[in-house]
Design a protein that fits this description.
Layout (H helix, E strand, L loop, with lengths): L2 H20 L2 H10 L21 E5 L2 E4 L4 E4 L14 H12 L9 H13 L5 E5 L2 H16 L3 E5 L2 E2 L5 E2 L12 E4 L4 H11 L3 E6 L2 E2 L5 E2 L2 H14 L2 E5 L10 H6 L5 E5 L9 E5 L1 H4 L20 H14 L2 H25 L4 E5 L2 E5 L16 H13 L2 E2 L5 E3 L6 H22 L2
Parallel strand pairs: 3-17, 5-8, 5-9, 9-12, 12-13
Antiparallel strand pairs: 1-2, 2-3, 4-14, 6-7, 10-11, 13-14, 15-16, 16-18
Bound molecules: pyridoxal-5'-phosphate.
Length: 436
């Protein structure tokens, strides 16, 4: 990118940011207040962006409203947890009924095993499942039991992977990661991963992998890569854990069904709690049954809210009444068609932009070169991504600042068409800056 293009993009960004701030005085005021009691006015880093994030006051269907009265079509979908939109009637009803029966019951309830049964039916590699409060916790528990079951200490992960707030393997040197001994592989490098497993196999308890790097840029795995992991882990006695916290919405049986690769363990979260806080981990019975409290050598697994009835009931309604296998397949197809419509537009206009992804999850990248792993992402063009973010926001579409989109079931075709239309306008407006 030439110096003059960079200067022009910076100037466009400065103006967009000013317009954004000028249109949101109440959000700014509330954020300033929040910053007096919370670091940066924030309790979830990913939601922050400069100059200040808008304050949302309400959501309905596929739409959000902020404190200053702006309406946004929600393309972020709560980083995939918002699959059902903001007011699905079946979920609302399930939560109301759960409330009627009282909360914080402190005992086994009827719903937890029904939800567990539905999850096992959906993800055939899972022979047993237990619940947690978040995807992070699910991954921590899966790694913990893998280490215990194998008697090994190390864990293999991939550069750019995000498995939770304390399991972040992106490029930041400053993290609050749990102190586990990690072997780093390169995503989608089958030969490299096989070599690492061959070299360190007898120390590795588990290989933890997202079938599509989610936070790392919605980069889908190659099937060969996952098969190589499956074969090598099998050969060396390591457990293969699929982190399907994001990808479990892929078709009728999650990404493991889509790729037809059977992991030993799977972790889940996000939408499977019906929009409430949720996590789950499970897999092979011989591994999971270490938690069986009837056993003399049982391993404890605690968590006050693991079986809270609000999440259990909302999750059960979500998977049985709303996101049925048929609906999941249709939603996958809708996402594929939407991504292809956007990519066809970029090809037609000859602009170096693309959406990567799988089904209803995708990520914008202002480059045309292929992206197989996070190293392929051209960070020098990040300012174009920022410009797109502000442009779309100004035109009523909310996606993640980093370019992530996850489609909810509440979005109609007219919402998707409007998004493509606004993207076309973005190209019309900034075309000369995009490929310079
Ligand atoms: C792949 C993946 N794993 C784990 C997590 C952590 O889930 P939670 O935010 O529920 O802790 C996330 C969250 O974005 C995720 O995308």
């Amino acid at each position: 990118m030439s110096e003059s293009t960079r200067t022009r993009i910076d100037e466009e960004l400065r103006q967009a940011s000013e317009r954004y701030a000028a249109a949101r005085p109440r959000s700014r005021e509330r954020h300033d207040d929040a910053a007096r009691v919370m670091p940066g006015g924030n309790t979830r880093t990913v939601l922050f962006f400069s100059p200040f994030p808008f304050i949302v006051t309400r959501g309905e269907g596929a739409y959000l409203w902020d404190l200053d009265g702006h309406r946004y079509t929600d393309f972020l979908g709560e980083y995939t947890a918002g699959l059902f939109g903001h007011s699905d009637p079946a979920i609302d009803e399930a939560i109301r009924r759960a409330l009627d029966d009282g909360i914080v019951l402190g005992a086994h309830n009827e719903v937890e095993s029904r939800l567990a049964g539905e999850i096992l039916r959906r993800f055939s590699s899972m022979e047993r499942v237990r619940f947690t409060n978040s995807g992070t916790e699910a991954n921590l528990m899966a790694l913990g039991i893998a280490r215990l079951a194998t008697g090994r200490r190390r864990v293999m992960v991939f550069n750019g992977a995000y498995h939770g707030g304390v399991l972040y393997f992106g490029d930041s040197a400053r993290t609050v990661n749990v102190p586990i001994d990690v072997v780093h592989g390169e995503y989608n490098d089958a030969a490299g991963a096989q070599e690492l497993i061959r070299r360190h196999g007898d120390e590795i308890a588990a290989v933890l992998v997202e079938p599509m790097l989610g936070a790392g840029g919605a980069i889908p795995a190659n099937r060969e890569f996952l098969i190589a992991l499956r074969e090598s882990t099998h050969e060396h006695g390591c457990l293969l854990i699929f982190d399907e916290v994001m990808t479990s919405r892929t078709g009728a049986a999650g990404a493991q069904g889509y790729y037809n690769v059977r992991p030993d363990m799977t972790t889940l979260g996000k939408y499977l709690g019906g929009g409430l806080s949720f996590g789950a981990f499970g897999g092979r019975a011989d591994v999971m049954d270490h938690f069986d409290p009837r056993r003399a050598d049982a391993v404890p697994h605690a968590g006050t809210f693991n079986n809270n009835t609000l999440s259990m009931c909302a999750g059960l309604a979500g998977i049985t009444q709303v996101y049925t296998p048929e609906r999941a397949l249709a939603h996958f197809g809708k996402g594929e068609a939407f991504r292809e419509a956007l990519n066809a537009l970029f090809r037609e206009r000859g602009v170096p932009m693309q959406f990567t992804g799988l089904g209803s999850i995708m990520n914008f990248h202002p480059q045309s070169s292929p992206i197989r792993c996070p190293r392929d992402i051209d960070v020098s063009r990040a300012s174009i991504r920022d410009l797109y973010f502000f442009f779309m926001l100004e035109n009523g579409a909310y996606l993640a600042r980093r370019g992530l989109i996850s489609l909810s079931l509440a979005l109609g075709q007219h919402d998707l068409d409007a998004f493509v239309y606004q993207t076309r306008r973005f190209i019309d407006r900034f075309g000369d800056l995009l490929d310079a």
